[in-house]
Structures are given as structure tokens and as C-alpha cells.
Amino acid sequence: MNRDGWWLIAAISPLLLLGGWMLWPDRHEPTLTWSSAETPPGKPREIPSQWHPPVPVSRPGEARFPAENAVEAAQAPVESADIRLDRLQHALANIAVDQDGNLVLDEVALASLQQAFRAVENVDMAMLEELQLYVQAGLAGETGAQAAEILGDYVRYRSHLAKAEAEWSSQQELSPNQRLERTIALRRQYIDPVAASQLFAGEDAHQRYLIAMEDIRSDPSLTEQARRHSFARVREDLRRGTLLVDSSDGAIASQLRTDRERWQQLGLTNETRRHLEQQSLGLVAARDLAGSDPQDWQRRYRQFDQEREVVLRAGLAEDEKQRQIEGLVDTYFTKSERDAAEAWLPPHLRLEAVR
């Protein structure tokens, strides 16, 4: 099916009924967000509350602007790139900042970066560095450094994505799922994998949903009953968060479904089951984000899952079960995997991932 056909499917799909997903097309990648049903407590500040007029900047070792011509220095990117710096500020204005001054990378931040890209997409890499310096000068401390870094990373990624898509369009045998996985792999070359996951996990899950639904719809071997059952299973995977992680390995998705059924049969509380599902999803996501060897990771995860099952069946208090399971996580997974499993989604999406 051609690319336009996919967006026809997106337009008529019942996705708006499935947990708050929304579609908003952008030039190369659609903005598909998974919005929290509740506003998280303690709403973070936004960038406008911290922005101040920047001092003139230039790359280290360069004396591009006379010291006495500060106004010209600060405005030079506008003249040479035919863009307005206030558009860039406006584009970044909705990115939230937490209490420690760190950017909150979520679907709102992604929309802001998409808007920023439209404002600066025609600049060359040298000018992009100047714009990054402008952003860093306009925001104090770590906030400025993070904003400049993610802006540069995102613009570079989108620029290379446009070139890659032109090449992929000539490869007729490339399936939609292969295109998606190539896009994710390309993205991780230019954006830190965990940061990319925080920004794009919801969008990628939506794409996997569309692809899976079309595969089922177009499979002539399925009976109508089997088709309805498959549709329901994919909707459940979307609702439960399974599609947030790479689903190209069908064994993982099947294992997550089996685990959910088993935990329910054990009579675990809803809170415990949600915690276990979030833990499993995070560890599966960490496999790719931390660059783990898939076979080694699978071996370790299988051992972990078996020992976790023993703990869950033991006659222990809930808090003691959780303590022992956390110990198993420390035993079987590396620090980089554990860190990725904790940070792969922005906080409010972690609450939404398993409902």
C-alpha cells in the first residue's frame, strides 16, 4: 500500500476511541501523541519563564563579530538565514522544565521541536551551530545546554531523514514496518536513544498499531472470526502499552500477554500487576535503548522472569515481593539497562502505559 493510503487509514481508524491518541501531520513524520487523561501534579515550568535576552555568541576560536557590535552579533543568524529568532523562541516556548532545570521530553516537546524545525529547516550545519549557541545563551545553565542539544540533534535527524526517505521510496519491497524500524534506527544515530524514546514512543506505538491493523485487514487467510479476534488483540496491545516497544519479535509480545494472564490468576492486586507490567515493558525497551546483545538479553530476561515467578508465588507480603524482585533486576540487568528502563518514557506516560 502506498504512503497516502496509510493516512487514509489513519483518518478513518477508530483510534480516537482507544485511549486519547491524536493525529497531526507534519512534513516528514506525523505527530501522534498519547495524552495523559489527568494533568500530572506539580506542573513544570515552561521555557518562557526562564528566557532572557542572549548575549552575542560565536563558536569557540572565532571572532566573527566585533565586541562593540553586540546587537549585530545577536541578530546575525536572522540576516544570514532569513529566519526570525522570535519564531524559534516561540517554537520552543511550550517545552516544560522540571524543578531541577531539566527539559521534560514528551509529546509537547516533540510538537515544539517540529515547529522549530519548520522555522530553521533550510539552515546549513554551520548556521545551526550558531542557532544552538543563541539558544544556550538565552537560557541559563543546564536548561540552555539541554535545549540547544536537543534542537541540534532533532534538526540533524530530520534533515537526514528526508534524504533517507528519498532513498527508501525507490525500494518497492520495503514494508511499512521495515520503514518504521529504519526510521527508529536512524533517529537513534542523531538523538540520544533514551531521549528519542521519551519523545517518540507514543508516535511509534501508533504507527505499529496502524501497520498491524492493516496487516490483519488485508490477510486473506483469516476467517472473519479470526480477524475480529486479531483486531481485538492489537487494540488490547495498544491499550496495555505493548506496542510502545519494538514488536517485531512476536515472542516478546506473546510473553507479555501470557504474563498478564498469569499474574491475574495469581490474585495479585491491580497495583502490583501494573507495577510488574511497567517493569517488563521498561526492561524490553531497555534491550534496544542500551544496545544490548539480543540473545544475551533474552537469556537473562528468561532467567529473571522465572525467578520473579517464584517470588510472586511465595507466601510473602506485597512489599517484600517487590523488594526481592527489584533485587533480581539488579542481578540480571546492567546499570545502563536499568537506567533506560526507568527513563524510557516521560513520567506521565509511564502512568498511562499500563492502565
UniProtKB/TrEMBL annotation:
Membrane topology value: Single-pass membrane protein
Region described as Disordered: spans on this chain: 34-58
Keyword Ion transport: no
Record key words, sorted: Cell inner membrane, Cell membrane, Chaperone, Lipid degradation, Lipid metabolism, Membrane, Transmembrane, Transmembrane helix
InterPro entries: Lipase_chaperone
SUPFAM superfamilies per the UniProt record, alphabetical: Lipase chaperone-like
Transmembrane segments: 6-24
Pfam families given in the database record: Lipase_chap (PF03280)
GO MF, one annotated term: unfolded protein binding
Cell compartments where the protein resides: Cell inner membrane
GO annotation terms (biological process): lipid catabolic process; protein folding
Top-rank lineage group of the source organism: Bacteria
Protein's UniProt keywords contain rRNA-binding: no
GO cellular component: plasma membrane
UniProt similarity note: Belongs to the lipase chaperone family.
Known function: May be involved in the folding of the extracellular lipase during its passage through the periplasm.
Name of the molecule in the record: Lipase chaperone
Annotated organism of origin: Marinobacter segnicrescens
